[in-house]
């Protein structure tokens, strides 16, 4: 089937949820993607911050293949070793006590919301303006942007939104009715904006007063993306619940919820579940990803290459935000720039009309960053 035929078939057969860029990728290697015609592109999206260890990593492929030959799925009616081994590894790197596995970030958020309501006995959530937590009904309810929410209202109640990094606004909204405060330590879809230390301190100080839970949505920021295992590690604070997905298995579908023992002890059997969640194949993919990250020091590479990338962007006059290899910066026309970069062989992403986001594989090198910056300079 030719590429043009694929475009036509997509229009004929697929529900039109997505507006795609006009390219069909056939294979990938490391930080590079190749289209139908063999043209090479530097991948600065990584499947929206997912393909953490690079495309077609040989050890990852080998371990997933071996697990596929052995056992892929039996459901959570039974015990499986990969699930327990993954939980052990997550406890080691995250500091949380217990875990639940699902299939995506938005599923992880849904589970976190249910857990918070069950544990506290309260209903109301406080989220932040510009937040993005997913597109299912619960996750959408705590997502701020009206264009996502409006077509599907009424959503779950009660939800209130606080101005981003505005401590006074937060103090005016928080009260004893709050079930949980949910936030992204660095807002990715909003354009890569970091929660301030002052705001974060207020969230945890008021927690002691009002007894709500704190949920960190680390779906985009987890697993070395920001130069630490999780963005929470930059703040030195410990939420009660944390959601994760994306880079967790380098593109293989899996999500997870991490909780403290204090939270877990108030959860009962059959209050939540998943048919596919935590299946042996997904758990093996995640465990392989984490162990490769450790072996190849990808948290360190994320810090170093992220700093280098921001330095090179500054040389072009951009004020780049973010930590590690989660980078955002503003331009005049982000959509046009993404199209121009694609022509130059660089795959980028705009989160708004004016903001570009880079979230490349964590294995990216200085030479590859230089290639991207040179292409960007040619597009200006």
TrEMBL record:
Cofactor dependence: pyridoxal 5'-phosphate
A Pfam family hit: Aminotran_3
GO molecular function: identical protein binding; pyridoxal phosphate binding; transaminase activity
This protein's pathway: Amino-acid biosynthesis
Record keywords, A-Z: Amino-acid biosynthesis, Aminotransferase, Pyridoxal phosphate, Transferase
Biological-process GO terms, alphabetical: L-arginine biosynthetic process
InterPro entries the record matches: AcOrn/SuccOrn_fam, Aminotrans_3, Aminotrans_3_PPA_site, Class-III_PLP-dep_AT, PyrdxlP-dep_Trfase, PyrdxlP-dep_Trfase_major, PyrdxlP-dep_Trfase_small
Family note: Belongs to the class-III pyridoxal-phosphate-dependent aminotransferase family.
Cited NCBIfam families: argD (TIGR00707), PRK01278.1 (NF002325)
Protein name listed in UniProt: Acetylornithine aminotransferase apoenzyme
Organism: Archaeoglobus sulfaticallidus PM70-1
